[in-house]
Fold:
Amino acid sequence: MKLFPENISTYGQEIDNLFWLVLVFVTIAFVISLFILIYPLVKNHYKKVKRAEYFTGENKKHFRWVTIALIFLALSDFVILFAEHHTWNKIEEKPIQTDVHLGITGRQWNWIFLYPGPDGKLYTGDDIKVDEQNSELHIPVNKNIVFDLRSTDVVHSFFVINTRLKQDVIPGRMNTRWFNITKEGRYDISCAEICGVLHSKMRNFLVVESEEKYKQFLSSLYEKNTVRP
Structure:
């Protein structure tokens, strides 16, 4: 049984591994806390014990257990931070080679996609914008796709669950992220931040295809947006 949706990105498995690591530490802390809570209740259920008292934890006996708990939490946080450092650096830094550069803008309530025009450069006069409900973002498979994320109104969150990438998109700020998708197909793009009354309708799609099909898509896009006299 698969607990997670299929991973299709080069760094998705690393994020899954971090999830399991955090789950291990949280489970250990949960079990210990539950034991400390329930064990005295069971042990003293039929005993006559003195009335509960409030302890400030200042004496050595109590302070020792507080210190042990703090050390355990600090060590677990250190292990998690150490393990995640490489993964988050990889995600947050641009790859050495950029194969495709795109612009993605969130607005109430769909994602707007900006493709470079025939000159192959983004943010020039021949860029092509796709601004339609339930539109598709086309990218080639096995390529480094770098995209700039923006918002025109409220906070959105760009989420492609199969890539394990979720990035908040904040008005007035641009975030640059990337992924490399290893499997062709059609996948959901959603907003993971409640952004208004039609938040649930903010759904687009990621289409991953061969480089040949991607070039054909761009050609048709250029032809469609060519101004004819």
Remarks:
- The longest strand covers residues 100-107.
- Residues 12-92 form one domain.
